[in-house]
Amino acid sequence: MRWSGRQWLGDALGGAVVALLSLPMTVPLGALAFAPLGAGFLPAGVAAAFCTAIVGGLVAALAGGSPLQISGPRASMALMSAGAIATALDQGARPDQAVAVAGLSLALAGGLQVLIGRAGMGRVVRYLPYPVLAGFVNGVALLILLGQLAALLGLPPSLSWRALPGHWRQVAPLAPLEALATMALMAWAPRLTRRLPPLVLAFAGGSLVDLLLRSVGAAPDLGPRLVAPEGLSFWLRGPALLAGLAGNAALPGWLAAEMPVIVVLALVGSLESLLSALSLDAASGSRHDPRRELLGQGLGNLAAACCGGIAGAGAPIRGLASYRLGGRSRRAAVIQCLLLLALLCWGRPLLMHLSYAVMAGIMVMVALSMGDLWLFRLLRRDPRRFGADALVAALVAVVSVTVNLAMAVLAGVALTLLLFMLRMSRPVVRTVRDGAGARSRRQRPLAAERYLAGQRQRLRLASLDGPLFFGTADRVCQDLAALWPETAPPGCLILDLGRVGHVDLAGLRMLDQLRRDQERRGHHLLLAGVDLEAARWSWLRPAGLEAPLAAGRLFAGLDQALEAAEDLLLAGGPHAETPEVAPDAFALLAGLPDAARRALTAGLERRGHDAGAVLFRQGEAGDGLYLLSRGDVEIRLPAQGSHPPLRLARLAPGTLFGEMALLDGSDRSADAVAVQPCVCHVLSPAAFAAFSGLYPAAAAQILRNIGGELAERLRLANSRWQDGM
User: Fold this and answer.
1) Which of 28, 72, 661, 711 is geometrically suited to a Cys-Cys bond with 53, CB 3.0 to 4.6 A?
2) CA distance 368 to 361
3) What is the annotated localization of this protein (predicted)?
């Protein structure tokens, strides 16, 4: 029970202080929202702001996802409401109709916030580009500063900053000094005490200074005071104003003009509320529910719109102040709303003593604290790298002042997307080279290797790096189409897509177009780095491009693509692979007399192996020299811990392996595994010893042939290495 009493006391204290804190923000923000309507509507604007703080804040507190969040008018949202009213006026609406259209726009924005929350799209809202956010915040700060100039000079607060040059003679000389004193007190407040927010001390101190100056007869030099705001009667007129729009033929056109404002209101309101909830989470160690938070904020704006209120959102300045003073639950927000309601019902005469100059000084300090200059500090350090982002931020700020906030955000997003496309449209073709230094790990008979060495100019390798989308596809197609002269003999183009992180439909169509172009000119297109199970290639099947692009031309790795390209270069030539190579056709037997050939082949042991069979393992004693007649065999290093087996070479029919068993009798240095069903002829050390006794000269020739093949393979490898440098 003691804990409950402390909780109630903390919530009551937090709610009371936040109500006092909200007062100097609610009044000028309401005047700011209704400023396009003129001075006669300022009392209605203040009443609309109170409606948002009370009705919207109460609904958002009860339905929201953060128990510490306290919602109400915010500078950015008030300016958006002013933009909605100004847009309606520009479309020919009367002042009362403009207020109703702005309320209907707010209701639609609140409904959109509810949909965003229900769909769980709160994270998407946070994807608004940072330069756009920075420009938006700076634009809001500039609009606040410009909007407070008239009140700072003691002129009617509804006077536009553009009209100030014609009213210099009406400036109240003490109003700027009063505003400066309020600003100085707000700046120095943290040094005086940390128990109360600086805004509260500045408001109290500035109001006291104004009261003292007016008591000594300086009222004419201090500028106007607040006109008593309308009471609950304005809230009752809200539903009537909305109902008055029914059947208005101009309403669809008005709403069409308001659509940018509606969308930006929903996005900015959601973003600011979520960021406020995050700051409260960081201070309290709690976690809010983003879906419920957006649902509560949307319902709050819907409720405020029905009563004639302006747009609102969660504000960390309110929630953090309540938390620091003991507020730990939704009761703090409810108490704040009830106190503001009591002030509006019975304390309106007290509001008539508030000075516009004092509130203008507070709003100027709020605007100065809002400014986001981090991006421009980065611009000074590296203009080339951050210049484009700073341009976006500057554009958004300028359009905010010259047009409106909604168009500023849309223009900023559009420019950001354009810059993103330009950055992503950099050349994607990373490297292009011929096949001189490229070779697969497939080991072929020496005659085929020599033939391939002379055919490498018919092979091209192109490596892509970056996204393959509509912004880069055409450039890639043009670059690759120019690789071959028109008179070039048929060849193979290998496209390494291992570094391509994203492929859209335009990229897939480009690949299909490139395939068609290569086939028309007699060339083959092979794609490496394509995994049909990966998300980026999942579009191949539904797009109907898997079959035409595949057809034996898609490979997971570059080595497999190189191997297929070599097979294509050999196809139809004198060294194309045959189903099975007879033992006496191996280069090992070159230079042997016929009798020695017959004796050697008779001493070979024919062995058949299924796919996956291990012919020998690393460390085993050498059982002979293997002549691969049919199928493929891989030479691998065995797996080590979590590392898979390492493929060293893939042997084609007509090659030999395991020769060290005859040369020095050493153990096996790697594993030999049948990739396909294969046939080998094995010359064991015992059979070779018996052959050497009968044909010593032929045995010496065999050893020379083995040494010659090893030497030539070493020369070919060295040549390829030099060509690839």
Assistant:
1) 72
2) 11
3) Membrane
What's the rounded Cα separation, in Å, for the pair 431 and 411?
37
CA–CA gap between residue 393 and residue 405 (Å, rounded):
13
Can you say whether the dihedral through the CA atoms of 646, 649, 652, 658 is positive or negative? negative
User: Could you give the domains of the chain?
Assistant: 2-412 (no CATH), 429-570 (3.30.750.24), 583-723 (2.60.120.10)
* Residue 206 in this model has a pLDDT that exceeds 50: yes
- Does pLDDT of 240 surpass 50? yes
Concatenated DSSP letters for 670-699?
SEEEESSSEEEEEE-HHHHHHHHHH-HHHH
Q: For residue 252, list its beta bridge partners.
A: none
- The tokens describing 464, both together, are 């892509």
- Give Cβ neighbours of residue 353 (< 8 Å, ≥ 6 apart): 207, 211, 225, 226
Please say whether the beta carbons of 28 and 359 come within 8 A.
yes
The model's pLDDT over 664-717, given as tens digits with 9 standing for 90+, comes to: 888 899 999 999 999 999 999 999 999 999 999 999 999 999 999 889 888 877
* Beta sheet of 605-609, edge-to-edge order: 605-609, 678-683, 625-630, 656-657
Report the Cα–Cα distance between both ends of the chain, in Å, rounded.
Answer: 81
Asked if 652 and 700 touch (Cβ cutoff 8 Å), the reply is: no
Segments of 480-546 assigned E as strands:
492-499, 524-528
